[in-house]
Amino acid sequence: MNTRWTKVPKHPGWYRESSTQAPWKSVKRFDPYFIWAAATEFADVGGPPALGAWIPITIELRKETAKKFAAEMAKPRHEWIRIDTLYSNPPAALVDATFCTAIVKAVFFEKLATDGYLKKVVERFELGLALASESIVNKEPQTYQPSENPHEKPTRVSCVVGIIDDGIAFAHERFRETVAKPRVDYFWDQGLYSKSISDTRYGHELTNGEIKDYMAKSKSPAGSVDEDTVYRLANYNEVRRRIAHGTFVLDVACGLEIDRFGKELPPRIVAVQLQAPSRRTRDRASGWLTARVLDGLRYILDRATKIKSGQIPPVVINLSFGLTAGPHNGSSVLEKAIDQLIELGRRKKGIPLEVVIAAGNSNLKRCHARFSLRANGKNSEKILCWRALPDDPTPNFLEIWLPKLKSPGSKPDVQVVIKSPLGNRSPTISIGSTYKWQPGASALCTVTSNETVATGDRTLILIALAPSASMDSNREVAPSGVWEITIHNTSGEKLDDIHAWIQRDETPYTFPAYGRQSRFDDPNYQIFDDYGYAKDDDPPAAARDKAYVKRFGTINSIATGEGTTVVGGYRRSDGAAARYSSSGPKLSSSGGTSNDLAPTALAVSDDSVVCHGILASGSRSSCVLAIDGTSVAAPQVTRWMWQQMVNGSYARNGKDAVRVLAITQDPSAQGKPVPERGGHGRIEFPSIHLR
């Protein structure tokens, strides 16, 4: 056995403090990404937190509401945790919510084992990393800045559209009521979490009163608004480029010409500029997204209750982003939290809430593997070839999710061996063990496995690789090339439907290229058909077992919940599913696949084979451009939903309504086959394409 591989505690203590296992023995559903972060000394998430520092986490509670939990944690003796008022003082419809975010000190993790109340109510938690580097923090405001101008209540409110995205041009003419009067009632720029964070509130909020004031100060002699001056006054720099993803998505979702206001009653807008640390701090773990999106969702719902006095308007929220790795059965923290918010809104009849999510663009990324292993014996192992690319300054993650066994009380038992591109081979790693490969001063690979983890409800094996390139001369890098992952089934039962996903490692849209997406190398994976054309779908069922890399199952990992409406993309010209559009199947919590199709339906994301994308607004008024992807298909369904809310056709279950609409509209209802990636069918919304 190579001594460069060493075993580490399964539940490490807080970095630079106690490294004993005692504080973690009672924490069954821990965050496996914390093992990697601690083993690498937080090198890829902004550096280690200072001793006594605060860090963000997301918590799921057991038999306790977030409101009651926040009240208990507000007592003076709990000085090691802080929870925002979004959770301690929620709208009436959300008082039973059991998910919240918080900032905590290291003692919180010790209290999980010693404090009776915490042991009883904390079900699981995820760390909300990444932390921004101090060089970034010193340039940008980090403390929460409330709006200087009060919110001006609109005279008429039909519903509210919420958006959480990056690059939202809130002063754009498509989001105004008049030349200098915005429809954006509230705007929250989340900013960045830093290592010196000490408050649960972060970023900067603008109300429509403040945006209106900025517009008044930015008027030209001709009466038009200088949008660049508005953003300079607001200290908002995320729409400096011609293409702004959030602006495009919001225009498709609810953009209107100013002269149409009054002819119809468009929705009010609550927008959240998503904190995007991955483009700056090289973090591709899921925890940062969970904390920021959950905060954004609760912010939108809280502000929606303030827009219409005495009544709570219907709300539809668009999420056009996501990840690839995860359990894909709706059991992740974020998916469970979203489902709960939707259900509370419908059951309590307080906030009629719909959440629309893009299906993802990973169909051809070769980031998903699916296979089975026979019971312990001959042919009971599988070798996955994971290719890490050179010159990649970002870490890479591979998640292997094992199925639940059919025998009552039985648990899957596998052994894993890692072979690096240099030929270094790990010892046999069993479930419940954690190893790291550290040939020098830094850990270059970590393997963590446990039967229960915070990121899902199945057994997970997480393999993390250090970057293959670094501008820091002192930072050791992992070798690029093919890493062989050998998985051997030692159970007495066959393991069906083992899934593995490589985490998304792409640079956010319009930003300079940074991460390089790793992939599986499978010699049986067919990239082209017999005629040399690129294949979009997996082979017929009879030939599928030859390749373990699958196109199906690449669905966005935050889009497998029960209540969310998931939208893929197709070409308008011929109705074919877009080559990049991801699909299910969703996995069921009990094992196997779910009967719930994924995506729910398809909307237009390309005009034709040669005209990619659809037209909508750039970051400045009168700028029109084309963007493709499922992220531009989802907001078309968002627009249709709020139109149903306005005209009185909304029936408190938008997902079912979209399903019915797809079945009704799709030509497949007249005998033509629905694409295998098409969910319930294709929908076209001609009224959306206003330009």
Molecular structure report:
This protein is α+β, with helices and mostly antiparallel strands and 691 residues long. The chain has 4 domains: 5-136, no CATH class; 144-154 and 164-306 and 323-329, no CATH class; 314-322 and 330-361 and 561-691, Rossmann fold (3-Layer(aba) Sandwich), CATH 3.40.50; 368-544, Jelly Rolls. The chain is 20% helix and 22% strand. The protein is built from 15 helices and 29 strands. The strands form 6 sheets. A 9-stranded mixed sheet has the order 10-9-11-6-12-13-25-26-29, sandwiched between helices. A hairpin with a 7-residue loop joins β19 (434-437) and β20 (445-450). The longest helix has 21 residues, at 287-307. The N and C termini lie far apart (65 Å).
Name a few traits of the molecule:
22% strand, 4 domains, alpha+beta, Rossmann fold, 29 strands, seven-stranded antiparallel sheet, 691 residues, nine-stranded mixed sheet
Question: Approximately what portion of the residues adopt beta-strand conformation?
Answer: 15-25%
How are the strands ordered across the major sheet? Answer: 10-9-11-6-12-13-25-26-29
CATH class of the largest domain: Mainly Beta
* SS field, number of helical segments: 15
Largest sheet: 9 strands, mixed
Overall tally of domains? 4
Structure summary, number of beta strands? 29
